[in-house]
Amino acid sequence: MIQSSLGVGIAFLFLLTMLSLLWWMLHVPPIIPQVVARAHREVEALKSILIPTQGMAYSERGVEVACRLGTEQDATLIFLYVIEVPRTLPLNAEMEEEDKEAKEAISHAEELAALHKMKSVSFVVRSRSAGEEIIKVAREQNADVIIMGIRQHVGLKENILGRTSDIVLRKSPCEVIIDKLPGEET
Amino acid sequence: MNDNTDIVTPSQPTHELRRDISVWGSYMWGYADVGADIYAALGLVIAAAQGAASLAFAAAGIVYIMIGFAYTELASAYPIAGGGQYFALRGLGDFWGFVTGTALLLDYTIDIALFSVASAGYVNFFLPYFGIDPTHFILTLGSLKINYLWLTESLIFIFFLIWLNIIGIKESSLFNEVIGAFDIFIESSVIVFGFLFAWKPEFLVQQWQMSFPTLHNFMYGSSLGIISFVGLESISQAAQETKRPATIIPRTSVTLIFTVFIFATAFSSLSLGVLPWQTFAEHIGDPIATLAHAIPYIGLIAGPVTALLGATILLISANSGVMSASRLTYSMSEFDLITRWFNKVNPKYKTPVRTIVVFSGIGIIEMLLSFMTPQAMDTLGNMYAFGATLGYLIVFIALIRLRFSDPYTPRPYKMPLNIKMRYKDRTIDFPVLAIFGFLGVGTILFEVILTHKIGRIAGPIWVLLGLLYFIYFRKKNNMPVTKSIKRNWEAHQMDVLTSAEEFDLAEEYRLALKERDEKLKRNGQTKPEK
Description:
Largest sheet of chain A: 5 strands, parallel
Strand content of chain A: 15-25%
CATH architecture of chain B: Up-down Bundle
Strand content of chain B: under 5%
Oligomer: heterodimer
Low-confidence stretches of chain B: 1-5
Number of domains of chain A: 1
Structural class of chain A: alpha/beta
Helix content of chain B: 55-70%
CATH topology of chain B: Amino acid/polyamine transporter I
C-alpha cells in the first residue's frame, strides 16, 4: 500500500537522479589521438595574428578570416600597412596619397575587428620592402601567425604569390596562411 | 643530497603499474570505501542527531562535497598514485607530503582492520543456518575473551584480499565492480520500496519538531556524518592504474559525490519517516537491517539480504583499504619520503607486492588489537576521524597553493566559484570554495579533537612516530628534512599525461609552458625552477 504521494515522488526522483548520474558517468568521450590533439591545441594557441593589409578587397577578406580564426581564443589582431617607398625617394618623403590610403585601409580593418569585438593594434610603416617589413614586425610583435590575402587575378606568366608574399613565405618566423580567392579561367 | 644538488626527474620504476581500471572500476573503488562508511555510520548519526539526522548528514555532506570537488580537481590534474599525499607534496613540499601521507595511511590500514572484522561479523549471521553457533568459539586468556572463529574469518578475509591485490589490479577491481553493483542495487531497492510503501512524511516532521537535538549533539552527529563520507580518496589512489584518468576521474568523482550524498540523505530521511530515532539508537550496529525489517514486501527477506549486503560492502571497503594503502606508500617511496625498497612493481602481476604485504600486515596487527580489547575498536575509529580530517585539511591548502605555483598544469575540472586575480603577470583563478572547504574541515577537525578523547592523543602520536622515521630516513640518506628535494616536475607531469594517453592535455600543458618560456625570454628573465 502506497503511504504518501510525496514518497512516490521522492522514490521516482531518486531513481531518475541515480540513473542519470550513472548514464552520464559511463558515457566517456572518445580518446583524442596525439596528432589530432597537437593540431587542435596548436591552432588554439594562436593568440597573436598579424594581418598585412593593402586596403584591397582581398586584404579585407584576409582580415575577416583572421577575425574568425582568432575569435574563439580571443586573439589580438595586429594590422600592418606598409607604404613601400621607392629607393629614389627618402623614407620620410611627402606621400600624401599613400598615407591617406593607409589610414583608410587600417580604418576598414579596425571596423571589421570591432564587428567581431576583438582587440587590435595597428601600424602604418614606411619601408623599402613590404615583405621584409612584415617579417620585422612579426618578430617584434611575437606574432603566432601571419594571415595574408593575395591577388585574385594573376596573369599566365606572372608569379602567383608576388614579391611580398614570396619573401614572407620564405623568411617568416611564424606560421603563414595565404588567402586567395579562385581566379577567373583564362 | 642537499639544496644545491641537481634537479632530478622523479624516477620511473623498471616495471610500471598496469592501467586496467575502467570507468565503472574507478567509480567502484570510491564507492567501495564510502558506501561501507554510510552503512556503518547511519545508526551512530541518528543516535546523536536524533530528529535532525538528515540535517546532520546534509551539513556534513556539504563539507564532503567541497572535499570531493577538491579531490576531483587535483586527481584529474595529477593522475598519479598517492592521492592527498602527492597533492601535498606538489603544493607544499616533501614534509607536508609526508604528514598527509602518514595521516591517510592511518585511515587505510584502519579500513583493512575495521571493515574485515565487521564483514566477518555479518558472515556470522548465516552460520546458525549451518548449525554453527559463533558465540561458542570463545578463547579465554585471563580476563581476555577472544572469539577465535570471528578472528580467523577476519584473517582469512585479509589474506584473501592480499592475494587478490597481488595477482592484479584488474582482478581486485573486478571484485569491487561486481559486488558494488549488487550493493547499489540492494540499497536502491530499500530506498525505493521504503519511500513507496513505508515512509510517512508527517512522522518525519513530528520527529524533527519533537526530537530536535541540542547543539552539542547535533555537532557530534555532523562530525560522525563527515566520517561516514570518508573514502573518495581511493579514486585518486587508483589514478595511476586508471585508463585515461584525467577524463574518467572527474566523471567518477562527481558521480560518487552526488550518489553518496543522495544515499546518505535518503537513508536518514527514510529512517526517520519510518521508525522512531530511538529504535536506531538501540540498533546502532545494524541500522539498514532495522530499517528494511519495517518495510512491507522486503521486510521478510530483510535479515539475510541486509546481512549479505553488510558482509559484501564492508569486504570491498577493506579491499579498497588494501589497494589504497599500497599505492599511497608506493608513491611515498617513489618520492623518497620512505625507503625506496617499497617502490617495486612485480614484473609478472604489475602490482606493488611489497607495499601490499607490509601495510596490509599493519592492518592485521590493528585487527588483532581490536580483538584483544573492546576499546581498540573505538580507538581505531577515533584515529580514523583524525587521520581523514588532517589529510583533507592539508589537501585544501595544497590546492590553493597549486593554483598559484602551478597554473600551467591543465585542470580538466576546476572547483566551482573562482575569483580571477593577477599574480606574477598571469591571471589566476582563486578558489573561494576551497577556503570554505578548509574552514569546514578545520571545524570538523576541531570537533574531532574536542569530542574524541582517544583520537586527539593517538592520532597525533601516529603522525609523530611517522615523522621520527621520516627524520631518520632523510638524515641517513643525506636528504633535506624540512626542505624538499628539487625535482623536474614539468618533465614528470608530461610523462604522466603522455603515459595516460591524455594527449590533448599533454599538448595543452606543452603550449602553456612554451608560452611562459617565451614571455620570460621577452622580459629577459630566466626560467623558474621546475
